[in-house]
Amino acid sequence: MSKNLRIGSVPYLVGRPLDQGLDQEPGMEYCQDVPARLIERLRSDDLDVALVSSIELFRMPGYTYIPELAVGTRGAVSSVQVFLRRPLDEIEVIAMDPASRTSQALVQILLANRPEGAPTYLFPGLDEDQRDLPAGAWLSIGDRALRNFHAGTHNVFNPSAAWVSATGLPFVFAAWIVRPSVDIAPHLPAFHAAHELGVRAIPELAREAGAKWSLPATVCEDYLSRECVYNLGTDMGSALEAFGERASAIGLTDSKAKPEAVQR
């Protein structure tokens, strides 16, 4: 088994302010993949720590997480949207994005007690396009969701904005989740240094993304610097606890999983 710390991160713009420079850190092996595949690799001991969907913390006992640092928000984010073909209260079927289990769970939590009744959900495979399924709405995450949202061709329901409005808490989309028995405490300074480097790089990241996607750099910079929050401080624990409780209440998680933050 490799003595290096094996790190996985997402291939989306949203991850760069957290993992900037980790691929150059000595003693670390770095890779990128979609969240669902990173989770599979974390469970199979192929990775030691991964920036993945926060719902995973509550699906297997024994995980810990790096405190404070996360892909979070205190409102709406452009990269996680439910695109609507008709008004939300008329939607009977929603096709889920297969890449993010946290976003799937968040939508299910928010719509579980809808007056019209909870929708039916379709869960395509990783190689399927949820937009092609027979549904009145589809969940989309990542860079494609951001681009399509700013194209303005569909009305949307923004789940993170709805969460913040309902709970008064921030939402944690992704966290650095640590596999059981991995001692990551000695590496914490490297993760905080990566975050500091990533925040400084936001203007350049925004310019590159804007040129690639034919979006104004100001839109991309606003997304990275205002919509997304990468250090939630002590609010991170409260937000995760509330999410875990609500997910467990509708049968989405293992109620025995009580993840704790890595101690410095």
Draw up the topology in text.
Elements: E1 5-9, H1 16-19, E2 28-32, H2 35-43, E3 49-53, E4 64-73, E5 80-84, E6 93-95, H3 101-111, E7 120-122, E8 137-141, H4 142-151, E9 155-157, H5 159-167, E10 171-178, H6 188-200, H7 202-213, H8 217-227, E11 228-231, H9 235-249, E12 260-261
Parallel strand pairs: 1-2, 1-3, 4-12, 6-7, 6-8
Antiparallel strand pairs: 3-10, 4-10, 4-11, 5-8, 5-9
Helix pairs in contact: 3-5, 7-8
Name the CATH architecture of the largest domain: 3-Layer(aba) Sandwich
CATH superfamily of the largest domain, by name, is: Periplasmic binding protein-like II
Per DSSP E runs of 2 or more residues, the count of β-strands stands at 12
The share of residues in extended strands comes to 15-25%
The geometry reads as globular
CATH fold name of the largest domain, please?
Answer: D-Maltodextrin-Binding Protein, domain 2
Number of helices: 9
Number of domains: 2
CATH class value of the largest domain: Alpha Beta
Structural class: alpha/beta
Radius of gyration: 18 Å
Tell me which oligomeric state these chains represent: single chain
Give the ordered list of helices and strands: EHEHEEEEHEEHEHEHHHEHE
Notes on the structure:
The longest helix has 15 residues, at 235-249. By secondary structure, the chain is α/β, with parallel strands linked by helices. Strands 1, 2, 3, 4, 10, 11 and 12 form a seven-stranded mixed β-sheet that branches. Strands 7-6-8-5-9 form a five-stranded mixed β-sheet. α3 (101-111) packs across α5 (159-167) and α7 packs across α8. It has helices at 16-19, 35-43, 101-111, 142-151, 159-167, 188-200, 202-213, 217-227, 235-249; strands spanning 5-9, 28-32, 49-53, 64-73, 80-84, 93-95, 120-122, 137-141, 155-157, 171-178, 228-231, 260-261. It folds into two domains: 5-72 and 171-261, D-Maltodextrin-Binding Protein, domain 2 (3-Layer(aba) Sandwich), CATH 3.40.190.10; 80-167, 3-Layer(aba) Sandwich (D-Maltodextrin-Binding Protein, domain 2). The radius of gyration is 18 Å and the shape is globular. The mean pLDDT is 92. α3 links the parallel β6 and β7.
